[in-house]
Amino acid sequence: MFPLIQRCCFHTSFKLPKCTGPRLLLYGKNKTVWSSLSLHLQRDVCPLSRSPSLNPASIYATKLQAFHTSLPFFKKKTPKESETKDAGVLQQSMKSLKDSPKPALYVSLAGLIPFVSVPLSMAIQGTYYPELAFAQFTYGAVTVSFLGGMRWGYALPEDSPAKPDWLNLANSTVPPLLAWQALLFKDVTQGAIMLVIGLGIALHYDVSLLPDYPRWFKVLRVVGTVVMVLSLLATATLKIILEEQLSNSRNKRQNTK
Predict the structure, then answer these.
(1) Nearest-angstrom CA–CA distance, 97 and 87
(2) Which of 200, 153, 163 is closest to 179 using CA atoms?
(3) Which of 77, 98, 146, 228 has the most neighbouring CB atoms within 10 Å?
(4) Cα–Cα dist 233/225, whole Å
(5) How far apart are CA 187 and CA 175, in angstroms?
(6) Which residues constitute the domain of residue 43?
(7) Which helix (H) or strand (E) holds 86?
(8) How many domains does the chain have?
């Protein structure tokens, strides 16, 4: 049967094999049936060989195309899919922030005022005030200590999933130690960097290591930490810029005299 189909597909003439000898005697009675069957095969199969879609080149190309087809999970995500995913995460975060209890939301936002007001007032007046910078610096150290001590309050209740073991209680003392170390620096820039490290460690505790916190609290912690870090870095940057401008103006006055 395979040589028959091969001859039809490659435009060769269809010829029935001659039945001689014993075969002729064996199939003599069914000669009419055999010939009609061969005519049907020649009429039905050979037209298919004339269609351009079934020639050997097209069949080979189709196999190659099927072989090189990439799987769905290997395909790169389009920019629209990534943008919609990011927008969905942002919307969920904002919704969680709105669902937070009003006292927790308002008290947390009010606690950010001392951080934001110091660099904002320096930038508006164009003058660096060491007293305001030290006040912000001290308030940041107190805040870092408070955020580290929250883990004690989370681990002490009997029904809490976090047990009062060495790991939880010792880790809660790390942010206060960093805040104390920050107060020992005479330079505000070095102290601000130490406070930023303490804020990052406290955020890691609350978001990653304590998964039982509600979502609104985690979103509120992320927003508050970002604002505090940016405020401390802004004060340190303004200190460098404004003091340099002040020294340049003093040098110009001395040169003119």
Answers:
(1) 15
(2) 200
(3) 228
(4) 12
(5) 20
(6) 2-67
(7) helix 79-98
(8) 2
Q: What is the pLDDT of residues 43-57, one digit of tens each?
A: 554 444 444 444 554
User: Could you tell me which of 218, 228, 222 has the C-alpha nearest to residue 113?
Assistant: 228
| Dist. CA 109–CA 13, nearest whole Å | 90
Tokens of 159: 């029904």
> How many Cβ atoms sit within 10 Å of the Cβ of residue 94?
11
Residues 125 and 181 in one domain: yes
Global pTM value:
0.62
Could you report the per-residue pLDDT of 217-250, keeping only the tens digit for each?
Answer: 889 999 999 999 999 999 999 999 988 888 888 8
CB atoms within 10 A of CB 146: 14
How far is residue 204's CA from residue 206's CA, in Å, rounded to a whole number?
A: 6
Helices 215-256 and 102-111 cross at an angle (nearest 10°) of 20
The count of C-alpha atoms lying within 13 angstroms of the C-alpha of 205, restricted to the half-sphere facing its C-beta, is: 25
